[in-house]
Structures are given as C-alpha cells and as structure tokens.
Amino acid sequence: MPTAHRRGGKTASTRSNQPVLSFGAKSRITKPSAATPTPSDKTKALEPLAIDISDKPSPTDAVESDIAEPPQPQPHVAELAVRQQAKAEIQQPLSEDEKTATKITKKQLQEYWNKEESKSQGPRFHHDDLALEEKILRHFDLSSQYGPCIGIARLKRWRRADSLKLNPPIEVLSILLKQDATAGQRAYIDELLS
Fold first, then answer.
1. What Cα–Cα distance (Å) separates residue 123 from each residue in 110, 134, 184?
2. Is residue 89 a contact partner of residue 81, using CB atoms and an 8 Å limit?
3. Residue ranges in the chain assigned as alpha helix (H)
4. Which phi and psi (to 5°) does residue 61 adopt?
5. Mind listing the pLDDT tens digit of every residue in the chain (194 residues)?
6. Other C-beta atoms within 10 Å of 136: how many?
7. Considering the entire predicted model, what is its pTM?
8. For the stretch 94-118, what's the b/e string if a residue is b when 16 or more beta carbons lie within 10 angstroms of its beta carbon?
9. Cα dihedral sign for 25, 27, 31, 37?
C-alpha cells in the first residue's frame, strides 16, 4: 500500500477541496482604491504648500504687533442654548421674589453659606479658590431636589423649582440676577459633561 502524505494532520485521501492559504508576496490580492493617492498625486498636493511657504516673509521681518491673536474657540452648542435661555429669562418682568432677591447683601449671602456649610458632613474639596457666589451656585447645581441641572440655565432652573413650590434658595436668585445675563448661567456639572 502506498504511503499517504500528511498535510495539516490529515492524509491526502481525506483532504477537503479547500485551497491552501498562501501568505507569500506573489499571492497577495489587494483591492484597488480610488481614495488612495499615488506617490505622484502626493507630491502634486504638496507643491502648493511649498509655494505658499516660500511666499511668506521670514520671522525676522515680522513685527510683534503684526502677529495675529489665535482665533477664539466657538462656544459649544449646549452653551449657546443655555445662553439663549438665560437671555429669555432675564427679559421677563421682575416678580416679588426677584425684587426681594435684588436687596440681599453680601453679608446675608455669607450667613446663608455658613448655614449650608454647617449642614455638610465632611470637608469640601476644590472650593479653596472659589468666590462665595460660585460656591453657592455650585451647591445649587448639585442639589437634586430642585430638578436636573443639565441643559438648562440656572435662572430658568430656579424659576422652574419655584413654580413647582420646591422652595429654592432666594440667595441663588440674588446671585443670578446680579450677574451678567450670559455669564455663569450654565451649571458647572453641565460644563464638565459637555
């Protein structure tokens, strides 16, 4: 009986009709792609850049006043939406609560914050370099009993909580009314998550 050749653990007589894979360079099949530029296309694309660079004056010719400032980054879409909400909320007529809030002094704000600090069960981290107003606003942002703070202006959130009889702190309203219409209207946690 002739000896059977073994390939891959099977004898030639039991081998399937499946072709053997070859990993050599000669059998390499590639798919042509229109998006892949050829080397000559790459050099053609770089030629205008080389011309543009050579046309620019050298750095020694430039005066410091001629240097343009870097462009300011565009605000995020969520930031724009919150700014529009804040502008719409500011334009409403003042209610009795808002008239009372405009009369709150810095001393009353400090007393409110001291009372809130005494309720806290542990030390607050990352509050050392914050202003009193920012501490109060961040505390309001993280107080879930007034509803979600993501995607809504702080002033609108305060008014919503007030309309739902959730008794939001008047001190927060005082800070929000005294601030610029667009500054500080977005919750800190909203900025972190965007």
1. 17, 17, 24
2. no
3. 39-55, 77-90, 96-101, 106-119, 132-141, 154-163, 170-178, 188-193
4. -75, -25
5. 566 655 555 555 566 787 777 676 666 566 666 655 565 555 555 555 445 555 555 555 555 555 666 677 776 677 777 777 766 665 667 788 888 888 999 999 999 999 999 988 888 887 888 899 999 998 999 899 999 888 888 888 999 999 999 999 999 999 988 886 556 677 777 777 76
6. 22
7. 0.52
8. eeeebeebeebeeeebeebbeebee
9. positive
Structure tokens at 39: 């080397």
Domain residue spans of the chain: 104-119+132-194
* Other residues' Cβ atoms within 10 Å of the Cβ of residue 171: 24
Q: Tokens 């995020």 label which residue?
A: 76
| ∠ Cα 162 163 166 (to 5°) | 45
**C-alpha closest to that of 162 among 117, 96, 116:** 96
Cα distances (Å, whole numbers) of residue 156 to 35, 95, 112, 148, 164:
50, 14, 21, 11, 12
Evaluate whether 132 touches 139 at the Cβ level (below 8 Å): no
Token couple for 177: 């009314």
The sign of the dihedral angle between the CA atoms of 58, 63, 66, 67 is positive
189, 177, 99: which is closest to 151 by C-alpha? 189
